[in-house]
Amino acid sequence: MAAKDSPLKQFEIDPISNIELGGYNISFTNSSFAMLITVLVITLFLTLTVNTRSIIPSRMQLISELMYNFIAQLLSDTVGDNGKRYFPFVFSLFMFVLIGNMVGMIPYQFTFTSHIIVTFALAAVVFIGVTILGFINHGIKFFTFFYIPGVPFYMHPLLIPIEVISYLSRPISLSVRLFANMLAGHTLLKVFAGFVVSMPFFTGVFPLAFIVALTGLEILIAFLQAYVFAILTCLYINDAYHLH
Amino acid sequence: MNYKNKNLEELGKKINNLNNQNKPDIKKKESGAGFGFKISTEIIAALVVGVGIGLIVDNYFNTKPIGLIIFFIFGALAGFLNVYRVMRRIEKQR
């Protein structure tokens, strides 16, 4: 579908090495490569900057501590004291999405968060984990999550399916939001980049200026979406503790 | 040593002042498009789940259009519920 200079060319998966195992295609693709880079960047950045452990932090150490505090604050605000044990999970999720988006902002670099299967897998992990957590905390009583107290009894046959559908729609809205934002942003960038070359004389300068502004906006969105992903995870964990 | 500590204290005061100044207007940066996007994904997600359940039910019980119709309506209602919850969360933050 995507021709040689289509704006959608950037989302194509191309296998770097073909691997097949038990009938499944588990090739190492450019998407996996981007993920590998992301994990490497996160690990190296966090370990190297916090390595010195100075009381008066350097700028880089300050960034790491800022990120740590950001998520720790988020968890204690939304979940409370119970939230501390989910810090590693939420922090790695946040960093993976954030650095993945940022790595995608580098020209010629693949953005793996622009594929719905990646974001849906992340959201499904959150969804299944939170559901299991709810059952661990409340046992069979977790089903009262779908039962709204203080409603006339004849409304329940109507309300319970609505509540269940609303609950099941969580991973979809979580994944679609991240994926669509990255897809739309990167497509827009490439479309305007196409205008720069195709417009006559010097008028290509205007789309170029627009791209510069748009890149700044994209970096903001990259951060904002990672933040939204983290805060919604926190809210869902909170729901698993406090029904209603 | 004393001189250094004094400097640090002043710096701390400065940082605290700046932090207090900057805090209120951080959350108002969200654009209108982002807000609309948030709302629309909530509705679409609920509709997708509703229609999906409807199709599965139809397949299972051979009740061709009825399950789809009923669960489509449930999905739409769940979408409105989602939007209502998002709005309430935003209201709380203000």
What does this structure look like?
- The complex is a heterodimer of chains A (about 240) and B (about 90).
- Chain A has about 240 residues and is mostly helical.
- Chain A contains seven helices and four strands.
- In chain A, the strands form two sheets. In chain A, strands 1-4 form a two-stranded antiparallel ribbon. A two-stranded antiparallel sheet of chain A has the order 2-3.
- In chain A, a hairpin with a 2-residue loop joins strand 2 (about 20) and strand 3 (about 25).
- The N and C termini of chain A lie far apart (about 45 Å).
- Chain B has helices at about 1-20, 30-60, 65-94.
- Chain B is about 85% helix and about 0% strand.
- Classes of the chains: A mainly alpha (about 240), B mainly alpha (about 90).
- The interface of A and B includes residues 162, 165, 169, 173 and 181 of A.
Structural class of chain B: mainly alpha
Q: Which percent range fits the helix content of chain A?
A: 55-70%
- The share of residues in helices of chain B is over 70%
Question: In percent, how much strand structure appears in the residues of chain B?
Answer: under 5%
Return the structural class of chain A: mainly alpha
Topology order of chain A in helix (H) and strand (E) letters: EEEEHHHHHHH
Q: What fraction strand of chain A? A: under 5%
Q: State the major sheet of chain A.
A: 2 strands, antiparallel
- Please tell me what the overall shape of chain B is: rod-shaped
Overall mean confidence score, pLDDT of chain A: 86
Radius of gyration over C-alpha positions of chain A, nearest whole angstrom: 22 Å
- Give the radius of gyration of chain B: 25 Å
Number of helices of chain A: 7
Shape of chain A: globular
In a nutshell, what does this entry contain?
The complex is a heterodimer of chains A (244) and B (94). Chain A is mostly helical and 244 residues long.
List its traits.
heterodimer, A: 244 residues, mainly alpha, two-stranded antiparallel ribbon, 4 strands, B: mainly alpha, 3 helices, rod-shaped
